[in-house]
Every structure is written in structure tokens, then in C-alpha cells.
# Entry
Amino acid sequence: MLDSNNLYSDYAELYAIIADDRDFVYELTKMEVLKLDSSSTFVELFAGPAYHSTTLKKMGWDGKIIAIDSSKAMEDVAKKRGFFGNYICSDAISGLSTVTQAQVICIPRYSIVLVDHDYVKQLFYVIANALCSDGFFFIEIHKDTVVNEQAKIHGDWERLGIYRREVKNQGTSIECLWPFTTKAVDIEKNIVDMCVKITSTNDAGKQDEFIFTSREHLHSRTTLDNFASEARLVPAPDLNFDTSDGNFIAYQKKSDSAADSDYFKTLGKKALNRIFDLSTNETQSKLIEKSGLDVEHHDSPLSLHVYNLL
# Structure
């Protein structure tokens, strides 16, 4: 049994074959990338074969395209399959730290499960820094049949369309079961070991079987929303869209002015109410004074200094 890192490195071409199973044109259209002008930047994180980036170029978009992935083998496969852009061979945080003023950043194919909560939390801050002032971030997550709002693992894997994938490539039939088996490693932290079984059968009937173990961290929508809020990314529900097996959820970088965002106005009011519920008159006055908020205008957006005191 091999680790999933072997799949992304030693068997990168095999992975690229089974991963070419999405409607990339549809997903890019829903992200509204084609509406952006040539001065815009599109970034694909955990890019692997970089199918979104490559498809975007083939659709005629002439903006700047950046793909980031830690596997050199994946970079080679992507370029062999027509990728034309800047491929940064690095982990997501390090690679994205070199990017500024991106209009769209996406994490497709549930790839966020490959990293733990601490990494995701830090990554969201880096994403916020890399986005331009009106930039958007899209991330694909599992539907609630797999992980619900409280991150309870339902394990309804067999009903997913991507559970069993069958493709034909140059006379060879390839079947992938992902997952083939599952084992909960840490229920509290929602960590699961998944066995991935790939069977290759040529025209002569000769079979080769590969089994990989993939450790996956299942993040709920609630967890991701919390990380986004901390990084000052605002939900953009009008841009959310369904895929065959999951959902892309969208976030927008918060405006520089808290007064420009209804989302943060609401946070400010909730923060003010929370302070007054829990504090004495003397404490209230001190907190308001520290925040710079006019005592006579409690319905004004609250300074983030006060919000950080909660």
C-alpha cells in the first residue's frame, strides 16, 4: 500500500487521467472569470494537472494565470497537457505569499482536505492578502451527506458520483474507487484515512492494481466560514454554485472601510450588544472610549478594536 503522495508524484500521469472528470468550462463560467479583463490574475491552488487553468487559457482568456502545487511531477504533467502560465512548485501558503492583486483564487476538487485545520486557518489569511480589493475566493467542499454543518462524518461515500470513476485511455480501461475503504483516525478532529483503489486493464486483459492511503481532514462549512471571517473574507452567496458531487462556496475580500460592508456593520452591532450585556456602566464607557466610538451613536459600525475585545 502506497501513500497518496506517491499518487501525486510517482503516478502523476495516472492521477491526471482519473482527475479529468469535471465540467471545467461550467465551473469557470460560474466563477465569472471570463468577465475579467486581461489585467486580472487567476490562481489555482492545489492545482495538480491544472485543469482549470489550462481550460481557462483554451477558452481564450488572456489574463495572468498562476497554478500552485507542491508536486514537480504534476507540474510536468500539466505542461505536457497544455498548461501555459506560471506554475509555482510549492506548498500553497509559500507559493501564494508571492502573489498580489489576484482577482480570483480557487481551491477545486475538495483539495482542502489534504491539510489540517491549523494550515487552513493560516492559508485563509494568505488568501485574503493575495486578493485584490474586490477579489473572490472559491473553494469546493463536500455536500452535507458527507460532512454536515457540525462536521459530523456521515460517510455516505458510495452515493457520490466521484466514488467510482471509469475512464478509457489509449486502449486501457482505468477504474478508480475513492474511497475504497475508510477508517476514522480522529472523530473529534474529523480525520479519516481513505484507501484509494485504482485498477488498470489493457486490451489483452492484463490488470495492474494500485492502492494508496489518503489522510483527509474533513472541514465543515461552519469551520470554513469562521476561518474566512477571521481573515476578513465575506461570504458571497450569490456566487455559490453546485457541482455534481459538492458545492463551490464563494468569499469576497472585505472592503477597506467597515462602513462599506453590511456584513461587518452587523458584526459591529452584535459586538456592541454583547459588550453591554456583559459589562458594567464603567466598563462600557472604557470600552467605548478605547474604540473611538461616539457614545451618542451606538448604532454606528463598531471599531474592529472593540470587536477584537470580545
User: Anything to note?
Assistant: The chain is about 30% helix and 30% strand. The chain has a mean pLDDT of 82. Residues 38 and 62 are 5 Å apart (CA to CA).
